[in-house]
Predict the structure.
Amino acid sequence: MTVGAPPESRPVPAPLRDPAPMLDRTIAEWGGHDDLWLFGYASLIWRPDFDFAERRPARVHGWHRALKMWSRVNRGSVQTPGLVFGLFTGGSCQGMVFRIPGSDGLETLGRLWLREMPTGVYDPRWLDCTTPGGRVRALAFTLSRQSPNFTGDLSEAHYRHIFANAAGRYGTSLDYARQTLQELQRHGIRDRALARLMQFAQTGSSETTDCDRVPAPLYRGSSEVHAGVSHSSSQEKKP
């Protein structure tokens, strides 16, 4: 696999938006008194990087996970963008919610912003989540289709190229996708589209350069239902 320069020597893209005011707004919306709930749909499920008092399976309606977000820091670089999951409008999404004690909320949000919001790409939103213990209001990192980090539909050849070459400060796009699939399966969440990506990724090559000649999109999303169309996956997302 071609990974290029070490992460510390790679240029970091300029922020799309200043993440500090977004953090201030999120803290104000939370209030700082009650426990903090976070919704994880990809890497937060298998690498939360924060302590939590409780974790529950959860579903959000009106949003779905899809591997359609460019990553130029965490799982790719400016020269070779990688992929991470985003949470997009439409359908539904299975994931996990984490409860952080109110006393730890500010520190947890600060650490999450360093990890998920270095360029201000996400739109943090408070979403209603259905859990076995009742409904909770949790913070989720969503992405707009108007964002320059939204990939649109990619061909199979393009996915192969990315999986063979893209790496960032937290590792490769391929490892990220594989670990997400494994953790979803461990929790009984099916994502057949992601499973298919992992099957053909094994035959990918760093010599794949003709990324755009296959016009048919391979990965149309995740989630059970999106825009009224039943998909083969059950879904989820990332940060």
